[in-house]
Amino acid sequence: MKRTFLFLAALATLTCGWSQNLSKNEAKSLQAFINQPAAKGGNNGQALGFAGGNVASLPGITISDGHVTEIKWDNKELAGSLDLTNFPSLQKIDVSGNKLTSLTIVSPTVVEINASKNRLTSVGLDCQQLMVLKLNRNRLPEINITGTPLLKKLNIASNQIVDLDVNNAINLTYLNCMSNNLEELTVSNCQALKTLYAGYNDLTGMTLEGLSKLENLNIQGNRVQKLYIQELPSLVTLACNDNHMTEMAINNCKALNDIFAPYNDLTSFTVTDVPTLAFVNLEWNDLTYVDLSNLSFLQRVNLSNNQLQTLDVSFDPMLTHLNVSYNVNLTDLRTVGDTQLRQIVGEWSNFDSPENF
């Protein structure tokens, strides 16, 4: 019995010692970080609940074969600069919801980084396998993704970026850069891009060439005055409200389903070769003439609060709801062939004219 006890004790000691093994370079980097002051007093180690001793026992880190593979330190009131240079086995990092000001990561294996909701003013990345990067709600004046060639999803919303160039990011499928200070946005030849959220910036225009897979485009709350969109075969939804836009034309977007463009200054609006268009909201503009006729899938149209004189929605067999309220000059409303039309909101002077129905 005594021999068995001694054997088990030795085995436990050996296992414990093995589990605490960590490369010197990684241990040094982690020690440097936990020694920095935390956001609410004490140091980062104390904020993590670290009692001291071997840094390999730090809460929130996963170690395999002597190397850190994952760091999960979200919402811990951490602060300062985090340098994860030369972490050869690191795969996933979550340091969101802290007060970090600087982040450097050099790792050939990391695939996902979440550093959102911090106070980052600088980020340096050399992560050749990185696929998901979340840096939203920080204070970044710029971002460089040239060291992340496999990046698929990028969220940098709510920063202070003025110029963003992701040109030729051929694997990028999702980009959220809303609520920055963007004056320039380059997304040409992002061949895999499906979703682009670029609202609430200072953009006056943008080029969408080569975005053959783009499905969702949001540029609301910018300064785009004239918008011409054509030959985006996968585009489904378009939101471009609150731009003070005066002209808008859409051509040959065969998958487009929803146009949301209220609160502009539109005097010209045209759509051609958009056979799947179902929902159109153009309220609060300055349009006098709109032609939305012969659209087989059109279902709902809101054109309230314009300057309409003529509206043609004839031969739209699926149209059910039409809002033309507060268009006091509307005298010509064409609804011939609209067999499913159930509701017209608004008053107009020729409502009972039989040739319109």
UniProtKB/TrEMBL annotation:
Keywords: Leucine-rich repeat, Repeat
InterPro entries named among the record's database cross-references: CDIRP, LRR_dom_sf
Signal peptide positions (record): none
One of the record's GO molecular function terms: signaling adaptor activity
PANTHER family, A to Z: PROTEIN NUD1, PTHR47566
Name assigned to this protein: Leucine-rich repeat domain-containing protein
Organism: uncultured bacterium BAC25G1
